[in-house]
Design goal:
single chain; 136 residues; alpha/beta; 44% helix; globular
């Protein structure tokens, strides 16, 4: 493993399968170069649908490489859970940000950008820019 400081990415979904699948997709599309630390935090501890502050905090800790952590969420209560963790101030690594971005497209943009060694601001901007991706 490299000692290079990379932005970590946490993908928070109400479904463990959705979070894991989006993480797999984003890492696969980032190519085989630098391995960005990506963690899925989906569902509840019991395997149900929902969000878990404990799973999110553990995921953020697992991807922290000293360059910040970008957290992307799927739906409303996931956002509220991350905001509550950020407000507590001691549950998440320093320089953890909730990123306002579409879940799938934003995750791909975040991981691809983080793989270039970009800083947290650039990763956040790339993910947010995914809102402008047009399909028709």
């Amino acid at each position: 493993m490299s000692d290079e400081k990379l932005v970590g990415i946490v993908l928070v979904s109400h479904s463990a399968q959705v979070a894991a699948s989006v993480a797999e997709l984003a890492k696969g599309l980032a190519g085989g170069g630098v391995t960005v630390p990506v963690a899925a935090a989906g569902g509840t501890e019991g395997g149900g649908l929902g969000t878990s502050a404990e799973l999110i905090a553990a995921a953020a800790s697992s991807v922290d490489r000293g360059a910040g952590v970008a957290v992307l969420t799927d739906l409303g209560s996931a956002v509220l859970t991350v905001k509550a963790l950020l407000a507590e101030g001691d549950e998440l690594p320093d320089d953890t940000r909730l990123v306002d971005a579409p879940f799938v497209e934003g995750a791909v943009a975040a991981v691809v950008t983080a793989a270039t060694g970009a800083d947290l601001g650039a990763v956040e901007a790339a993910a947010a820019e995914a809102y402008s991706y047009r399909k028709v």
